[in-house]
Amino acid sequence: TGDYNEAKSAFEKIITKNNKIVAAYDWLAKTHEKMGNNLEAQRVLQDAVRISPKAILRQRTLGNIAHKNKDNVTAEYSFKEAVRQGKHSFFKSPSDYTCLAKVLVDKGSPMESLGVLNDAGREFSGNLEASIQISVAESLAFKKLNREEDAGKAVQKAYKLVATLPGRLPVDIELDLARALFLTGDEKSGKEIV
Length: 194
What we know:
The chain is mainly α. The protein is 77% helix and 0% strand.
């Protein structure tokens, strides 16, 4: 119902009564996010991860919120855990690899980023949506390395793959593609996507 203060209070009471109920931490973190308290959401998720570190979805969520908070150390660790735990999991996702790659680019490690994306390419070969995500992330790494031609080729590959998709991409992937197109100088195509 949008009563986030009441929800926050309820989840805090649950945690006070039994601090091992990690679902309460997850929901408390979501509540903090809704309230615009991203740093507090991250702190709550870090507490939950200390209690239950082998939860790929929680690691992914922590990675995303830490990246929003520009805490690249925590984001890197969480996405690496999500990738490691996802190797043999139903919850394995190409976004764990591409998010880790973006964090590494932000940290100034674009070569390591390309290595992660190479692993993702092997892990998700034949997955069209994953190929698009990987190509977009590669373009950002190449851009950071000042390899403009390679960055342009990677983003154009992604743009061409989108045309072969039977449906639409998730909005966050479309926005990443538009951003990559703008960064590589193809403003017309970027505007079309936006």
